[in-house]
UniProtKB/TrEMBL annotation:
Belongs to the ABC transporter superfamily. PANTHER family: ALIPHATIC SULFONATES IMPORT ATP-BINDING PROTEIN SSUB, TAURINE IMPORT ATP-BINDING PROTEIN-RELATED. Gene3D superfamilies: P-loop containing nucleotide triphosphate hydrolases. The lineage of its organism: Bacteria, Pseudomonadati, Pseudomonadota, Alphaproteobacteria, Hyphomicrobiales. InterPro entries: AAA+_ATPase, ABC_transporter-like_ATP-bd, ABC_transporter-like_CS, ABC_transporter_ATP-bind, P-loop_NTPase. Keywords: ATP-binding, Nucleotide-binding, Signal, Transport. This is ABC transporter ATP-binding protein. One of its GO terms (molecular function) is ATP binding. Residues 10-237 form the ABC transporter domain. It comes from Rhodoplanes roseus.
Amino acid sequence: VVPFDDPLAIEIDAVGKTYASSDGAVTALGSVSLDVRRGEFISLLGPSGCGKTTLLRMVAGLEDTTTGHIHLHGRGLDGLGFVFQRDVLLNWRTILQNVLLPIEFRGGRPKQYRDRALALLATFGLAGFENKRPWELSGGMRQRAAICRALIDDPELLLMDEPFGALDALTRDELNVELQTLWHRSRKTTLFVTHSIPEAVFLSDRVVVISDKPGRIVEVLDIDFPRPRGLDIREEPAFGHYSRHLRDVLERHGAFRKR
Ligand SMILES: Nc1ncnc2c1ncn2[C@@H]1O[C@H](COP(=O)(O)OP(=O)(O)OP(=O)(O)O)[C@@H](O)[C@H]1O
């Protein structure tokens, strides 16, 4: 049991990761340290291959750290919801059955969570789609269902690995607004991986910039817009300033060089 006033959700302490590969060891992450506060929305922004996914997978306990350690406060790994780059819904199950999957995995009773699942689906505009199969839905709808699945067990911590990267720009905007609204209501601690500067600025309390090789934190930027936020903040001068600053940081660290 954790004291309610515990201000921290995740401590990432000098964490590094080296993979063994056929051409020798690859250091994906150098040494990364970050304290994530409870209820905070943090984006991890960086070029492809800088180790963002690796970091997220280590926080989720899906991957070991090579050096350093990660401490999850609260319910630990039991309090965690994960949304992947691709929705990874099971095609032979209905949307409702997909959303209830985590309950089955932990040996719970899906029936008891049916109402919650339907309410979540309704929040994300999927009322009436619960008995469809994933292949009957658009990409945006599937990713919404994947978010519902991550939320079904009321996690303390939401880990999202570029969940909107494969969507068209309009759907992506829409989902950004929905996620922002949901986050504003629930204040779930969220770690969100993205390549997109505007997405990071729009959603985050803090944007953590990671450079590659090996991945390390080169900047932590506070985003000071009030909540709830609408897409119109993108027209504000401050939004432009944040974006330009992040772009400069990425450029300085070689994120845009030709590979
Ligand atoms: N299982 C693995 N074995 C060997 N190398 C790996 C493995 N997983 C990742 N890597 C390497 O580690 C580095 C970081 O990969 P990672 O997927 O964490 O980056 P990323 O920033 O999430 O990239 P992207 O944004 O393209 O998803 C890359 O150089 C990658 O090739």
